Amino acid sequence: MVALDDLDYRIIKLLQEDPRMSSRRMTRRLGDDVSDRVVRYRIKRLLDKKVIILQANVNPQKIGYPVIADILIEVMPWKLSETCAKLAAMPPVAYVSAAYEGRHLSIEVNARTEGELMTFVQGTLPRLEGIVNARAMVVPHLIKDVALWEIPR
Hints:
By secondary structure, this protein is of the alpha+beta class. The chain has helices at residues 6-17, 23-30, 36-48, 80-88, 114-124, and strands at 67-75, 93-98, 104-111, 131-138.
């Protein structure tokens, strides 16, 4: 675990606001008591410790994938790892997570149409060995994305 102080929280918040914000601009926003060098050091430390990850997140809706679905999947426990790996390798799958008890997965799928989503749920998933059940929920409106999560203090 990495201990964060108030300056770390403020830097992270600025990076969430604009990941391309320069350290010089951050310094101006953070106030006179913080130097550009300190901001650069803190960002490097947060990156090195894997507290933050700078990446380009694709907005699926803007590139022709307006249908988003969360799918809860029940699997045979002895097939969990294999099923996770197969799902993670599939292009429409954006996210895969497994429950601690080893029987349930949660995935997010992006599709061009509801028909494409249904083909995935009713055609692709049943062909994967180990899947017992799958329940899809179309996400009509994404309120808060994981990229916008703020660290609780």
